[in-house]
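#lab-general

N.A. 3:47 PM
ok so I finally got the sequence cleaned up, no stray characters, all 81 residues accounted for. can someone with queue access submit it? mine expired

B.Y. 3:52 PM
send it over

N.A. 3:53 PM
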Amino acid sequence: MDSDKCTGCAKCTESCPQKALEMVTEFIDLEDKTIAAIKEMHRKKIQYTCTTCKPETNQTPCTKACNAKAIWCVWNPSNLK
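B.Y. 4:20 PM
back already:
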């Protein structure tokens, strides 16, 4: 996720069928900014959480919902072994 591009619209969090994303407020560039982030409980297993959305296509619900193109998938199936 690109926090600079994220507008805080929350469309990605609403579209995630696994509910792996959340909106958080972080201190960025000397101001508080609300951005999308991966929930803590999913961070270490995000590749497994997202497999049902077929991330190899980069057409997951979250990426399609983001008009700002602040979220994308980097898919490396060799990490699933």
